[in-house]
Amino acid sequence: MKQPLPRQVHATLRSRLLDGTLPPGTRLDYKQLALELGVSTTPIREAVTQLATEGFVDLVPRLGAVVRSLNQSTAAELFEVREAIETFAAMKAAERASSRHLELLRQQHTTMSRVFDEFKESGREWLETADLDVFLDADLAFHRTILLAARNSALARVVEESQVQTRIFFADRGIHERSRLALACQQHGMVVEALERRDGPAASEAMRGHIRTSLQLTLDHLENSVTV
């Protein structure tokens, strides 16, 4: 069944936010978007209003809709949500994950490690956009798989929003330099190993360490961005 037009427009705009086509700080021009998507401005406005409700867009008086930027306070809030829920999800996933879930996690971790190894061997300082997209897609899929493995749909719905918001806000790719990617691979590997052992406390602590590290790196990146 075909989705209603406002929902289709919402999905398209959200995808552009996710892939960095509409980076933080971008003003959304309703008329231009309507022209690009071949629709009237009405479904554009409805979709943008929904995106604002979800926290992806700010509605600024006299300026209109602007893609929300990340600050240290917002980052801390997002990562607090992730830590509270994803550590619990990792605990439950250790109990409930199927062999298929574990296989997917291994594949996703392998993809991240492969991209990083190729990047390291290339001698480049930064990942090319296409490679970074592969890395980030595997990273996001990894966290989603753990949520699925926890077999709790309420957890998945709550974290899905913070995960997507975090990915959108990181359209500034500067945070994904070599040491950050190496640490991400290592910490994801620790989570996989704990889940394979069915060690809930270890999986939970590994996830907690990963999320807290990500938060600190994010806060450092934001502080440096302000001072530069």
Please render the helix and strand layout as text.
Blueprint: H1 5-18, E1 27-28, H2 30-37, H3 41-53, E2 57-60, E3 64-67, H4 72-96, H5 99-122, H6 129-149, H7 153-169, H8 178-196, H9 200-227
Antiparallel strand pairs: 1-3, 2-3
Helix pairs in contact: 1-3, 2-3, 4-6, 4-7, 4-8, 4-9, 5-6, 5-8, 6-7, 8-9
Describe this structure in words.
The chain has 228 residues and is mostly helical. The chain folds into two domains: 5-67, Winged helix-like DNA-binding domain superfamily/Winged helix DNA-binding domain (Arc Repressor Mutant, subunit A), CATH 1.10.10; 72-227, GntR ligand-binding domain-like (Four Helix Bundle (Hemerythrin (Met), subunit A), Up-down Bundle). Helix content is 74%, strand content 4%. The chain is built from nine helices and three strands. Strands 1-3-2 form a three-stranded antiparallel β-sheet. β2 and β3 form a beta hairpin. α4 (72-96) packs across α6 and α6 (129-149) packs antiparallel against α7 (153-169). The longest helix is centred in the C-terminal third of the chain and has 28 residues, at 200-227. It is globular. The termini are far apart. The relative contact order is 0.14. The mean pLDDT is 87.
Please outline what is shown here.
This protein is mainly alpha-helical. The chain is built from nine helices and three strands; from the N terminus they run αβααββαααααα. Strands 1-3-2 form a three-stranded antiparallel beta sheet.
Q: Which tags fit this structure?
A:
single chain, 228 residues, mainly alpha, Arc Repressor Mutant, subunit A, Four Helix Bundle (Hemerythrin (Met), subunit A), 2 domains, three-stranded antiparallel beta sheet, 9 helices, 3 strands
